[in-house]
Amino acid sequence: MTEKTTSKYLLNLEKQFAHDNPVLLQALKVFQEVDQLEYELGLIQADETTASKHSWWPIVSLVGGNSNAKSRFINSYLGTGQLVSGLQTSSHKFTLLMHGNQANSSTLPGTALDVDPRYPFYKISSKIEQQQEGEGGRINSYLELITLQSDHLKGKLFIDAPNVATAMATPVISMLTKHTIETSDLVCVFSDIFDTDSELAKELIGLLVLYQDTNKFVYLIDEPTANLSTTNNNAIISLWQRKLSELGLNTGQFIVLTNQQNSANPSGSGYFAEIDHRMANVAHGRSYRVLDALEKNINDIQDVVIPEIQKGIAAWKDRVNMSTLVILSFIGSLAVLAEIQMGILEFLIDPIIGPIIAVVLFIIMIPLHLIGSKLQAKLISLRLVARQKELHLMENLSNLFEKNLTFGRMLLPAKDPVGWNKKTKAHLLQLREKTEELVQSLNDNFSNYQEPAKNNQPASFKEFP
User: In principle, which of 41, 131, 384, 435 could form an S-S bond with 171, CB 3.0–4.6 Å?
Assistant: First the structure.
């Protein structure tokens, strides 16, 4: 067994995120075991890691119907002088906002996100190209990165999605919107999207209905003239709950936003207390999302990757066998024709000449069978490359398939790829069990099932880092 070195990406993750979170630290070790298994199968290279499939940053996304409500919230909540002075994110791009140490903000192109595995839009250009040919090279038209010196951005990323009232519902925008919703740990949905009659708004509402049970949505109701009284807020929330229920949205938290810009230092007071509480829990959601991604990676090996290779091997064998059968049929036809013309049957049944002819035929057919196997294998490899792109897999399907192009496997009816055996399946089961234990360990950070102490003092609560 060739030992795979720990990728630089995993080492960076350990430095950035896992030093204060023992569960994620253990998750990194399981990721390394998954990488080792996939490396032995030939699915990934020595410097690759399955942990790069998903962003490890806590992610908050903001979606709104027009620029006013969302921009006003961003300006107030992030609370930097630059934003208040008029700096706003683009209304037609997916803008990633992250904390920067410099006093002045910086705007970076979308290519900065596409090539960095730490961010949620890693290698997104290939998916854009699949959605719309020629658009993958125009990634800067869809994405940008802005760094801001704001305490609310520390330790997390904000994704400001294009306004559904102005953005076109193109295949690329629709795909990026779905990707943003899926990737985010918290989605702040501004109520004005429900007053917007556009195709993108309808698609977004469909996504909200689809993912509503994930507990990731907070509906921000923009009411600039509303009073801060509990009675008024409850009445407004009840009205919106009934309205969204008619759309099939029955879950999610509702928060009323009044005019933040007229509030005295809203970002420094208790004005955003409810939002701050949800933001504080984003890191917890990130931890569960990472563990869910780890479990998905493990399951995909058995449920997606290996079945695709098995289909490729089956198709390869069928094509090669058919080609060999065609050649044998051609030789048989020649033999029949020769029998009619010359009468060669007596040679075939001769106890000496007959076996010699059979051996000669066998010697001729083996090279033809091997040549046909290699030619058909090239076609199957190309199909697996296309299938890999279609499924958005980082695993190299064609590489694992080509490991089966050995002399023995080209002659014998092998169905499973090289390395897929009881030992590998047992290892996958162990990794799946380790992941489940990590989820349980993460749950234990928020609850304690031990009996209380005899002095009636409550059991200590382990604070989540």
Answer: 131
